[in-house]
Amino acid sequence: MVQKGRGRPRQFDREAVLTSAVEVFWEKGYAGASLDDLTGAMGISRPSLYAAFGDKEGLFLAALAHYGGGLGSDPLAAFDAGETPVEAVRRFLGTALENTIRDGAGARGCLFASCAATRAGTSPEVRDMLRASLDAVEAHLTAGLERFRAAGALPDAYPSAAKARLMMDTMQGQAYRARAGESREKLRADLDGRVREIVPGADA
What we know:
The protein has 204 residues and is mainly alpha-helical. It contains eleven helices and two strands, in the order ββααααααααααα. It has two domains: 8-68, Orthogonal Bundle (Arc Repressor Mutant, subunit A), CATH 1.10.10.60; 71-198, Orthogonal Bundle (Tetracycline Repressor, domain 2), CATH 1.10.357.
């Protein structure tokens, strides 16, 4: 991961170290993640961390952006791949759930909701990033549901924006339940009912 050249600053794979930082922040939270935890997992020195990211919060912001462009975007990609409203909604919620309870990683929920939200109250930068992320996800889901409505796959009066927000709330609710220890089987079994709430009358 880290490469050292004689007489030159340390070079490292930015994507790899950010992936490691995400795992630490996800497990320990912002406050609980020490610089020793972070540099140890990332395989870099403190001077290298400061040079690349400025400080711990700068690293946290970079880690959030990295997560949002990678694992955090998986549910939206799954939604886009759905050929019907039911399939799209189910894929969105199912992918989000599986990311929450990945094998060997424990139940941790969305990094933005489980970690960034606790930092947002004291960091305007984190709060702004969190708000922008929520707005972007809502807009993406709303636009997708509107396309289904325009194509006749949803009723003309279907409230796409409200249902997009319900999808987001449902995603966070199932993540909360997972973090509280509810089983994968129970959470998966409840998906059908959640999908019907979002697409009424659908055979999920």
